[in-house]
Amino acid sequence: IIHPVEVALLLSGMQMDAxxxxxxLLHDTVEDTDLTFEQVEGMFGLEVRNIVEGETKVSKLPKxxxxxxxxxxxxxxxxxxxxxxxxxxxxxxxxxxRLHNMRTLRFMKPxxxxxxxxxxLDIFAPLAHRMGIWQVKSELEDTSFMYLYPDEYKKVNSILxxxxxxxxxxxxxxxxxxxxxLRNDPTLRSQDVEIEVVGRTKEIYSLWHKMEMKHxxxxxxxxxxxxxxxxxxxxDSIVKATQSADSxxxxxxxxxxxxxxxxxxxxxxxxVKDYISFPKPNGYQSLHTALMYKGQSxxxxxxxxxxxxxxxxxxxxxxxxxxxxxxxxxxDLYNTPWLSSIKEWQQEAVGSRDFVDCVRRELLGKRVxxxxxxxxxxxxxxxxxxxxxxxxxxxxxxxxMHGVExxxxxxxxxxxxxxxxxxxxxxxxxxxxxxWMQYAKSRSTRSKLRAYFRSQxxxxxxxxxxxxxxxxxxxxxxxxxxxxxxxxxFEVPTNAxxxxxxxxxxxxxxxxxxxxNDIGHxxxxxxxxxxxxxxxxxxxSALQECDESRxxxxxxxxxxxxxxxxxxxxxxxxxxxxxxxxxxxxxxxxLNGGQAEFADSENVCYHCLPVRGDAILGTRHRDGSTxxxxxxxxxxxxxxxxxxxxxxxxxxxxxxxELAWPEDEWEDNTSESFLTEVIIMSVDRKLLLADxxxxxxxxxxxxxxxxSSSNEHCILEFLVRVKDxxxxxxxxxxxxxxNSVMSVERRFGSELLDEKDL
Length: 758
Hints:
- With about 750 residues, the chain is α+β, with helices and mostly antiparallel strands.
- It has 31 helices and 20 strands.
- Strands 1, 2, 3, 4, 5 and 6 form a 6-stranded mixed β-sheet that branches. It has a 5-stranded mixed β-sheet with strand order 8-7-11-9-10.
- The protein is elongated.
């Protein structure tokens, strides 16, 4: 009976509400006796039952002293974090329970002492710190430290004992001088305020941890080894005048000015911290400054009585517990944003160990504070990057980010944020890339990125299905109109709105989006033919026969173009072997007096589709216009032969003209683009068109697509716009990297191009 009574007394000392104190008294009853949760609810109410039930669920914790703790133990810890998100009073009861257990730990075996101390130091002390319960946090750390590191504990104690006299003298003198200064100040004397000055030395674990982090065991280098605390309690007149918990705040800044001018003390201006204007995430508020007295640093903390209560008891001192009307309106008062993030993570399908590690790292670990340009402070886990900061501001900010500036200077997106950084997120044309998943350290950021990529994939699937279906209808328009058994006249649809009218009654689809999604997911020629056959009442055998014939024709065309390319290259090699010069072939001896003219990029031959960077030749017509051809174009070769071997017959293709691309426009004219067609041969698979479409759209502008397939292989055609030959080559290289793609070729001219594309 002693343990539950002591837990209840601890909760009462934290000024918790009646329900929490009762739950502390009853927290072991259901587990240790025949009492049921229903009986607890019947005798003490639903709130008490919920707290007792939540605390009971998390009563068994993983043995964190060992790296290989079992999955079921990690699941227990996961359940504890999830349970406390509904009502943080559950974890306050758990902290009181753990605090009394630590006070009685001396009666347990050494092995048990170390196991309990390890989980206390790893989980419960950080939880108490995150919730702002300083008294509990300090005692849990010091007690755990004593059992986990007994030798280090003795060493630190020994160091403190050797300096005890100097520390006590500094502390006593500092308290005396500060009290006298405040008592004699006319401004404070004229105010209705009670002033308390107390001194303390730094806690043992905190002192050891700071020395270990700095690799320095010199106590003179620890700024807050000796600390004074000034607590201002405003009288009724000030409270009534301000009507808020902020009463007396201005007095804190007044006291700060007095502290900076204490006689015989030297202020340390770089040590001033304003946690009143910029509170810590757990609600802590205070002014901090440091003074130097005879070589000993003295920290001074200045706060109001209300701030002091929050500093000592944190979330346990929440105003909601003292406002009965508001406390009864919503259980949201017992939740906080950082606890809510645990609920978000719980919705993701992650393993228990990953979940626990994420909570320990991102919520209970060290924090970093950065500023936005508007002065707002972001509180992030240490190690987070600029990508995390962008998504912390707002999801849309992250999704539209194209750059980031830290302290006014551009930095890469994977820049690790440091305390005090001023972060400026540049938004506009940006969009996430898969590399961001490597940069993001926060689970919340990675979750938002995954959702975005899933959405993009769904959009690509829909777009892929739309391309496949309407390209198929366009290529088979005549066959569909001839073979269809639809009795009334109709036109083959060219867009989703027109297709919608054909769906009711002809298939199981009522929504055209659902149909196109299924086609995009399937990527199957048989599936596509089946849907076209049902919707337009066309025999499937007729469509299949047409597809097989078209596939054979395209295969022969691609093979022939490859042979032509090999033949042309071979001819060049023969020419090169006969020539002693490595300079490119020039026709200046027979064309326009040896002076090359600049090519007009808007007047190109659509039989060969030249692209900036191609070797080109021109043909001038009677109207004075000059058409740009690829050197291999049959029309260009005919004009060249006519120039070399003149005849009386007028050439129908025009006069051959030597052309060159204007170099000064190559980089400056970004609006210039050229049509070209790419053919992809691949092993057929699902989502092939979607994958290739993503690459093509990222590296060019897609105008039209075509596709055909056999039982195992597939041919995709893309009519695209590119800036130059380098951009085309880059596109083809990227397409060759797509899984299952066998070859990527540039078509000479185009089979997809029609007049409306010109």
